[in-house]
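so my prof wants the structure for this chain in the C-alpha cells format not the other one, which i didnt know existed until like an hour ago. anyway here's the sequence
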Amino acid sequence: MRLAHTLHVAAIVVAAALSASSHAQVSELMRFETSPRVVRSGDHTGPAGGVDVEPELRYYTVVTDPGANLMRVHFGAFDLGRVSEIRLSSIEDGRTQRFTDETLVAWDGWSAIFNGDAVLVELIVAADETASFEIDEIASNRPVVQFGEDGGVATLCGSDNRSASNDSRVGRLSGANCGSGGGCGGCTAWLTSLGCALTAGHCGTASGGLLEFNVPNSDADGTPNAADPDDQYPVGVNYYAFQNADEGFDWAIMDVGPNSNTGLRAQAVQGYFHLSPVIPADDATLRVTGFGLDDSPSGSSPNLCCSWDSNGNCTKNGCNATSLTLQTSTGPKTDDTTNTLLYAVDTEPANSGSPVIRSSNDFAIAIHTNGGCTSSGGANLGTRLTQATLDQYLNIFLGTNGRFVDAAAPSGLPFGTALNPAWSVPSGISLTPSGGTLSVAGGTYSAASGNTGTFSTPMTIIAPSGTVTIGN
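here's what i got, hopefully its the right format
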C-alpha cells in the first residue's frame, strides 16, 4: 500500500514575527481545522476480463462532520494500481472529484474543498486490479458565530471603491489546518509566468495548501462557498519557500499542481501575471485584486461578526454575498522603500497575498501584505518583488542553473533571471549553463524576433506557464 506523498519543502526562510504597526490581512471565515477520521476500505478486486471491461464500484462510504460548511478528506495511504480511481462527491450539491494513484500523490493525499458536511467516497476498481485506501483525517470549515459591536479596524482608503473582478489569474488560498501550526490561509494568491504562485508569508499554507479560482458568491451572511473541483489546484506540495517577518519581508512562493479532474495546469487554464522589477513614480495608478471581506452593504445578519483582531475583538460585522469573492480596486502609489510599496488602494481582510499590479502595463510588482489605510488617510502596503530574499528564491524555483525567457518582459536588463528574463529563446539558451534548465513563459517567439538558430548546449527546455510557439 502506498503511503500518502511526503511533503517536500524545497526552501524555508523563517524570521521574526510580523510588525504590529499595520494589520496582516487574513480571514478566519476560511479557517479549516483537521480532526482524526479513520476509514479503511480494505482490498477490493475489480472484474476479470482485461482492458475492455469497464471499472466497477467496489466500495463506498460517506464521511460526515455535522454542521460543517466546507469539508476536505485526507488519504493517509492508498494503492489504486494503474487505472483504478477514488471518486468523491459532495452530498449537498453533487460536485465530484476523481483521483488516480498518480494524481492523489500530486495532491499530497488531500481532496478538494466540498460544500456541505458530508462527502461520498467511492472506490472504483479497474479490471484485473486490486485497490484500497485509508482515510486518516478530515479538514472542516464551519461558520464562526459571534455577535458584537464593530471594533473599528479598517483598511479602506475612505469609502469602499472595490468592484467585482473576473481576473482568473487570482485565486482564493486556504490551508487544511489552523489548529496545529499547519497554516490557515484565508488569503489570496496569484499565478505567475514562472509557473509558481505567490502570496504573503504570513498566510502559511504549505500543508494541504489549495487555490480556488472562479469562486462563487458567498451566502447572504458572508459564509463562503467552494469553487467547482475543476477550478481547484494544490499548492506547495513540492516547493514552498517563505519569509514571515516585518513589513517588506513577508512573502511566499508555491509550486502549483495539476487539477485532478482535468489534468491541466492552472496557468494553462487561468492565465498568469508577468513580473516586473520596475517601480513607477508616486501617483502612478496601481491595482489590487483579491478575496477580501465585504460588509457594504450589510449582509443578511448585520450583527454577526465576520472579522476579528489578534485579541479576539470584532472588527467587522454583517458580511455579505460578495465577501470572500474576487474584487478589485485602483488608487495611487504613495511611496516606496527598498523592500516595500505603499498605495492608497482599498483592501480588506483576506486580501493578504494579492498581486499589486501596475495599471499601465498589467505587470505585477509587489505582494500585498498589510493594511494601513483609514477613512482619513494612510496607505496599505506590500512586499516588492525585488526584495532580495524573495528575488533569490524566485530564481531557486527555476532550478539549478535555471534561466528564464519571457517575450513580454518589461524594459530591463535581459539576464535570464526571474525578474530580468531574456527576451528571446536564443538569448536564453546562450545564458543557460550546460545541463541547466531553460523555462520559457507562454507565448509566441517568432522567427521575425530572432527566435531561430542551431544550438548544441545540452539543457532541458520547459514551458511552465502555457503553450510556447517558437520560430513561426
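also thought this was worth mentioning. Residues 2-29+147-384 form a domain with the Thrombin, subunit H fold (CATH 2.40.10.10).
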